[in-house]
Amino acid sequence: MSAEKVTVSIIKADVGSVVGHARPHPSMLDAARNVLKDAQKAGTIEDFYVTRVGDDINLYMTHYKGENNSDVHGAAWECFQEATKIAKKMKLYAAGQDILTDAFSGNVKGAGPGSAEMTFEERGSEPLLFFMADKTEPSAYSLPLTRIFMDPFTTTGLVIDKRAKQGFDFEIQDVMANKKVVMSAPEESWSILSLLGDTSRYAIKRVISRSGIGPAAVVSTDKLNMTAGRYVGKDDPVCICRCQSGLPSVGEYTQPFINTTMLVAGWMRGSHIGAFYPCSPEDSDPTYYDGPPRICCLGFQLNNGKLQGLEPYGAKNGEHIPVDFFGTSTFDEARRNAIRASKFMRSQGPFVPSILGAEEMEYTSRPDVLKELTDRFISLDEAEKPKKKTASKKKKTEVE
Ligand code: F6R
Ligand code: MG
Ligand code: MG
């Protein structure tokens, strides 16, 4: 009989912040912790950790209830309700922003919050990385994940680890058409890249080991603006990764964030291109032009369904201390490069490619401005028709 499978979930939402779109108030995080403490006591979840990136509250939860479980999603929903109440009481900015429905219907999907969940048989030792991004979209993970899982010049494990060498399956979503396709690397690498290069449409949902280890990475691909039908901020996606022993090592996951200064869509008003700024959650306040887009990376070991970080064994109430990979001085240069690249993009002001192309701007506040201008346009054909000479002009010519 196979062992019971554990599910690792992150459910996240922006339900208000101090100041503007900067960070949730600590009391909001405390409220979420209290809800999850009760959910742990009730046996709904095994363990949890509450954190944030920029203005997004992130709930890490482990449990044996499987993905899309209504009790687990319900606990997350309650966290966001309680946090929203505090945000409203304090008159914080955008209180309740990502809560798009009044009533919870068993799953946060389509209701505003984003989620990434993976279910697997816990190995003898199970290192996990939790990436969290603010002010950007799900496809922001496509470049780093393809480097990590498809590029042997990035991940040496792809050529010298027997299991990693068997390759990975990629579940790719067309986020506009709500469709998916599964493709295999290395055989279909170039076709995979031909899709993912279009970051406005395609995003990686899942990466799965082909050597039988199970899921390796999962991304929250919820498109908030499409759900809401109007601009409500970018999706600020999360990504959970399993590491080592036939999967990319911890260092193979973190390396691309130093080697490449990655330009991603989002930033101010969800309308710009800025560079990914790798940092600690503590440093993730969007202080430069509402950004630049931040990315954090926290690590835990999984121990029989419980999270183990640097805290003493058996810690209760979600009181964990993760390893903060991007919070280290090793990433100082990457941060400097990100600011340099972001300043360069800003020097182009409101012109592409500093701002997004017209198709993506459809999902921002720009169409409202364009609507007002539509009636003022006149046909060039009409405008350029030769004008009839007027009588007074003729008279003038005769005098001459
Ligand atoms: C981006 C974001 C911010 C806001 C910007 C304008 O995801 O949340 O950059 O878009 O501060 O916000 P409003 O329209 O609320 O004034
Ligand atoms: Mg916000
Ligand atoms: Mg955000």
Labels describing this entry:
single chain, 400 residues, alpha+beta, 10-stranded mixed beta sheet, 24% strand, globular, binds fructose -6-phosphate, binds magnesium ion
What does this structure look like?
With 400 residues, this protein is of the alpha+beta class. 28% of the residues lie in helices and 24% in strands. It is built from 13 helices and 16 strands. It has helices at 26-41, 70-89, 142-150, 157-160, 189-196, 224-228, 250-254, 256-259, 332-346, 358-361, 366-374, 380-384, 391-399; strands at residues 6-13, 47-53, 56-63, 114-120, 126-134, 168-174, 179-185, 202-209, 215-219, 238-242, 263-266, 272-275, 277-278, 294-303, 306-308, 323-324. Strands 5, 6, 7, 8, 9, 10, 13, 14, 15 and 16 form a ten-stranded mixed sheet that branches. Helix 1 (26-41) packs antiparallel against helix 2 (70-89). The protein is globular. 45% of the residues are buried.
Question: What fraction of residues sit in β-strands?
Answer: 15-25%
Q: Write the element-wise H/E pattern from the N-terminal end onward.
A: EHEEHEEHHEEHEEHEHHEEEEEEHHHHH
Q: Pairing-aware structural class of the strands and helices?
A: alpha+beta
The profile of the biggest β sheet is: 10 strands, mixed
Which overall shape is indicated by the principal axes computed on the Cα atoms? globular
Task: Figure out the total of helices.
Answer: 13
First-to-last CA distance:
107 Å
Helix proportion range: 25-40%
Q: What's the mean pLDDT score?
A: 94
The unreliable regions are: none
Rg from C-alpha positions? 24 Å
Small ligands present: fructose -6-phosphate, magnesium ion
